[in-house]
Amino acid sequence: MTSRPPCHLLILALAILGAGASSAGAEELTSADRLVVHKAERKLYLYHGHELLGSYRISLGLNPVGHKEREHDYRTPEGHYELAQRNTRSSYFLSILVSYPNPDDMRRARQHGWVAGGAIMLHGYPNSPSHSTAYYETTDWTNGCIALSNSDMVEVWMRTQDNTPIDILP
Fold first, then answer.
1. By 3-state DSSP, what share of the chain in percent is helix, strand and coil, each rounded to 5?
2. What is the predicted pLDDT for the residue at 3?
3. CA 76 to CA 146: how far, in whole Å?
4. Distance from the CA of 6 to the CA of which of 16, 92, 112, 168 falls in 20 to 30 A?
5. 159 touches 45 (CB < 8 A)
């Protein structure tokens, strides 16, 4: 079987989701105006106003407890951020950059003489997995990112825009 670039998978997923739409006119998905991550629950929630649009199981960094303090601490940050930039060609099935580090994170890292780190993303599973799907579904395995199943990542991708706020809570 030939491997396809992630952008082709997105197009395929969009086509499949669109195929279920009624011929009388497809109802558009409601866009989220904020995301909330509860690290302890391993859940990401999408909201439009007070309406819950979706709830997704997530995996976190290898060292998930506590706020990210510096590069290579394997923690997922905690705080207020925004979705910053989309990438269809990352090493993972789709990725959306989170605006970590924010000014408070930078100040805290400087005070301790640390590098704050960066490249915190929402993303799907690796394009070249080294473990079973069950591993990715049940283990905190990222370097500090927030990982979703590929199908959940498609939905989050479709329901969000750049600059959408994301609150990451303990």
1. 25, 25, 50
2. 39
3. 7
4. 168
5. no
Residue 94, both tokens: 């789709």
CA 62 to chain centre: 15
b/e per residue 81-106 (b: at least 16 CB within 10 A): bbbbebeeebebbbbbbbbbbbeebe
Which pTM value belongs to this model?
0.84
Residue 7 CA to residue 129 CA, distance in Å, equals 17
Report the candidate in 44, 77, 79, 80 with the shortest Cα–Cα distance to residue 63: 77
CB contact set of 12 (below 8 Å; sequence gap of 6+): none
Domain coverage including residue 156? 32-169
Tokens of 1: 């079987």
Tell me the C-alpha distance between 149 and 56, whole Å: 9
How many domains are contained in the chain?
Answer: 1
CATH number at residue 95: 2.40.440.10
Q: Which helix (H) or strand (E) holds 129?
A: none
Which two tokens mark 127?
Answer: 């394009």
Distance, in Å, from the CA atom of 2 to the CA atom of 108, rounded to the nearest integer, reads 46
Write the pLDDT tens digit of every residue in 56-94: 999 999 999 999 999 999 999 999 999 999 999 999 999
Residue 83 exposure: Cα atoms within 13 Å on the Cβ side: 24
Q: Is residue 11 part of a domain?
A: no
The reported pLDDT for the residue numbered 96 is 98
